Amino acid sequence: MPARNFLLYAVPALIWGSTWFTITFQLGKVDPLVSVVYRYVIAGAVMMGYCWLKGLPMKFAPRQHAFMLGQGALLFGINYWMAYRAEEYIPSGLMAVAFSTIVFANSLFGYVFLKRPINKGVLIGAVFGLSGTFIIFSKQFFGIGLTDEFLFGAGMAMLSVTMASLGNIISARNTGKGVPVIQANAYSMVYGCIITALLGLFMGKEFTFEYTQTYVLSLLYLSIIGSVVAFGFYLTLVGEIGADKASYALVIIPIISISLSAIFEGYQLTWMTLFGVIMIVMGNLFALRKKKPISVTN
């Protein structure tokens, strides 16, 4: 793997490995949808400011804006609203596991919408990786009853994965059509903020704010580091190697989440945890090997 691609993999994986836990500090007095609006008010403003300072070209055709609107709605709006709602009912680690299934969705949607062949190595690697994450969180899986609340949270989690994957595909399409990643992200974050704000107003949400150090610092971390920095690296990777392979950076996020939990929350590492980590590493080796794509046409 080229050093540049390794960096593009590592940075978003390290950041997003911590954001699932950080999101828990956003849950409470402020409605999750409103928190997502605040997150992308900040992220969109930072991105637009960066584009202005750099003097980047910001004029695009109406059709290009339409696709950036779609990217924003799915990747920087509805996706995160559903993720925040999911974490009200399921553990953040379980949400990280659910999100790692995006590797399958990206491969499928990439074939359907972008006519990209399905890569056998990615699918085999994803099976190993997902098996590892299920092993790591097996105690959580079997220790949680299938209550209505848990099923609702799991459903929201999978809808979040679907929306994020479709957003990835639109992003890959935008990059393929020559829209620069930075400008696309800037406009998409602004569009995502506007759409979620309008949705909140339509649903009668109360736009309150929690003036506590925990809420404000977690909001800034999610907005600037979790959104601006991480998405800049990740969507650059999507444009260079495709959404299916790029999404494998998300499969290793549970490992990072577990490491942080062991350091800061006293999570007890076990042999099952170690075995799960080994499975995920093996999955990486399969996914990153150069394999011929699977032919899905007659």
From TrEMBL:
It holds the Pfam family EamA. Keywords: Membrane, Transmembrane, Transmembrane helix. Its main location: membrane. It comes from the Bacteria. The chain crosses the membrane at residues 7-27, 33-53, 65-83, 89-114, 121-138, 150-172, 184-203, 215-235, 247-264, 270-288. Coiled coil: none annotated. It is found in: Membrane. SUPFAM superfamilies: Multidrug resistance efflux transporter EmrE (SSF103481). InterPro entries: AA-Vitamin_Transporters (IPR050638), EamA_dom (IPR000620), EmrE-like (IPR037185). The keyword Membrane applies. Residues 7-137, 152-287 form the EamA domain. It is a multi-pass membrane protein. Belongs to the EamA transporter family. This is DMT family transporter. The lineage of its organism: Bacteria, Pseudomonadati, Bacteroidota, Cytophagia, Cytophagales.
